[in-house]
From TrEMBL:
Protein name: Acid stress-induced BolA-like protein IbaG/YrbA, predicted regulator of iron metabolism
Lineage: Bacteria, Pseudomonadati, Pseudomonadota, Betaproteobacteria, Burkholderiales
UniProt record similarity statement: Belongs to the BolA/IbaG family.
Pfam families with a match to the protein in the record: BolA (PF01722)
Source organism (scientific name): Oryzisolibacter propanilivorax
């Protein structure tokens, strides 16, 4: 799977303001910014992203996905000069 394919899958199932992906086709690190994360704990945010992937994690299409999940306000606060 390519980064663009993974990005398309996540953004099709989750309203995202920003997605950055780094990986080798099986192992991925994603930074995902979504207003849908408001009021949710990290585990709930990750579960929401995993839900967009459906069975792709079980079929090994995506072997590993590490995530940094942020709300838009959290994302802005992390940006230089914010």
């Amino acid at each position: 799977m390519t980064a663009n394919e993974l990005k398309d899958i996540i953004s099709a199932g989750l309203q995202c303001e920003h997605i950055a992906l780094d990986g080798d086709g099986r192992h991925w690190f994603a930074t995902i910014v979504s207003p849908e994360f408001e009021g949710k704990r990290q585990i709930q945010r990750h579960q929401r992203v995993y839900a967009t992937l459906g069975g792709r994690m079980q079929t090994d299409e995506v072997h590993a996905l590490s995530m940094k999940t942020l709300t838009p306000a959290e994302w802005r606060a992390e940006q230089p000069g914010a």
